């Protein structure tokens, strides 16, 4: 019977964890595209503003000190990515986070940044 030393045990453990089932390549591609949308400061600011509730373009533009057309452009991108959803009331369109997962993604990202900043 072969004796296994500690470094071999660690190596086997690390290599064994690499065998965890990976998501389909198409799913990983969609995930990469999702994270690209989060790669823009303006879009992150809009998403963060929407964590407090739905808003129309006018109120978002005022809150973020931006032009309405710039906000509308970014909202189109966020909507096509499935991160925000519109609700029409008369002539006004209100936007909200699509679901709780968007808020969870933002929260997880912020927690990670704060954790890294604190050096822990």
What does this structure look like?
The chain is mostly helical and 120 residues long. Helix content is 62%, strand content 12%. It is built from six helices and three strands, in the order H-H-H-E-H-H-E-E-H. A three-stranded antiparallel β-sheet has the order 1-3-2. Helix 4 (57-64) crosses helix 5 (68-80). The chain is globular. The mean pLDDT is 89.
What coarse outline follows from CA principal-axis ratios? globular
Reported by name, the CATH topology is Arc Repressor Mutant, subunit A
Number of strands: 3
Largest sheet: 3 strands, antiparallel
Return the structural class.
mainly alpha
Query: Proportion of β residues?
Result: 5-15%
Report the CATH architecture. Orthogonal Bundle
Rg on CA atoms, Å: 21 Å
Provide the succession of SSEs.
HHHEHHEEH
Helicity, in percent? 55-70%
Given this structure, which CATH class is correct? Answer: Mainly Alpha
In DSSP terms (H or I, runs of 4 or more residues), the helix count works out at: 6
Mean pLDDT: 89
Tell me the span between the first and last alpha carbons. Answer: 43 Å
CATH superfamily caption: Winged helix-like DNA-binding domain superfamily/Winged helix DNA-binding domain
List low-confidence stretches. none
Number of domains: 1
